[in-house]
Amino acid sequence: MKPATITMLRAYLLTASLAAAAIQVGVLASIGFLGISEDVFTSATFRLAVLAIIACIVLVVKRMARAAFVRALSYDYAVVTDAPSRKTSVSPVCPGRVLVILHLLLNRRPIEWVAC
Fold it and tell me: Which residues, in sequence order, are CB contacts of 16 under 8 Å at separation 6+?
């Protein structure tokens, strides 16, 4: 596999695992504070629902990252530095830098790292 593909897959897995961790915290809180039975969370229906929720969260985060990237381009926080390779330079003072970098990683676009 190409390094760019591996980096893209890592970005997707990181996003999905953070979504799963947030769902897990919600499940533990509902068991502890609301007294919901653990049997509810072990059913196949719940597992399928969680899978669908994780996929939706990944898609929403991807759209948010794209919006941050477009915004960063419009305000010159991000600049495509080299047309053939499509390298993108992101300013260290960009307000949505994390989302812009996530967008670049999810779309296998090369990043030109600048010194802070």
Answer: 54, 57, 58
